[in-house]
Amino acid sequence: MNPQTILLYDGSFDGFLCCIFEVYSKKITAPIIRKEDQTHNQLFTITEQVQTLENNAQRVWKAFKKKTTKTEQNNFFKAFLSEIKGVENTLLNYTQYIFKKANDKQHIDFSNKDILKINQVARMVEREKHRMEAFVRFQLTQDGIYTSSAAPDFNVLPLIIHHFKDRYADQKWLIYDMRRKYGIYYNLKIVDVITFENVFEINNQTIKRKSLDEEIDFQKLWTAYYKNVNIKSRKNSKLHHQHIPKRYWKYLTEKNNI
């Protein structure tokens, strides 16, 4: 019996594609793909650290695009961003299935369990993306940057860049993922990915809040607006919780002191 080979990567999408490259280039028969920070105690396995090489990642993605539609490519990426445990291996199985298909792009076969799973997960990630686009609230810093923090269930920041870049093209803004410790920053020209620890949790000089009085006035404005549109006689708590889950409330200005 051949031992399983555990391929460890840096957590990036390119790193994951490089794992797929390794599977094919080394003809690995029993691969398991995991992020390098995930512990494992499986016996009778071989562990390999996969280096992220842009050229190898591009080769895999180029081959994948030749076999798939735009929708399949988007769903593949969204499923990866879900960060659900084991999703890398589901995506690997799907890739192997795709590469075995005929050259002509075929309709999505939902009888395939991996395809069905990927599409289900992609829909979950898409819903989270829409929630983020709806629930992000900005506050102005002393440096003239509109900042917002959130902790989405899935890693959806890459998916919301275009929405906020188009909607707030004339403002500098920063959206920071508290859970994953990175953010996206728009400087009026391009969107950069930034990382710094505990930016909203400590008294950090990098981000200077606007004066307290101005910030309180800003929050009062949102609270007043929310109360005026929230007609008590039409209150539907079940529907409200469905569309604005409680995990988002601490990041919504209008939910403070309500």
Automatic annotation (TrEMBL):
InterPro entries, alphabetized: DNA_repair_put, DUF4130
Naturally occurring in which organism (per UniProt): Aquimarina mytili
Name listed for the protein in its UniProt record: TIGR03915 family putative DNA repair protein
Residue stretches making up the DUF4130 domain: 87-254
A Pfam short name: DUF4130
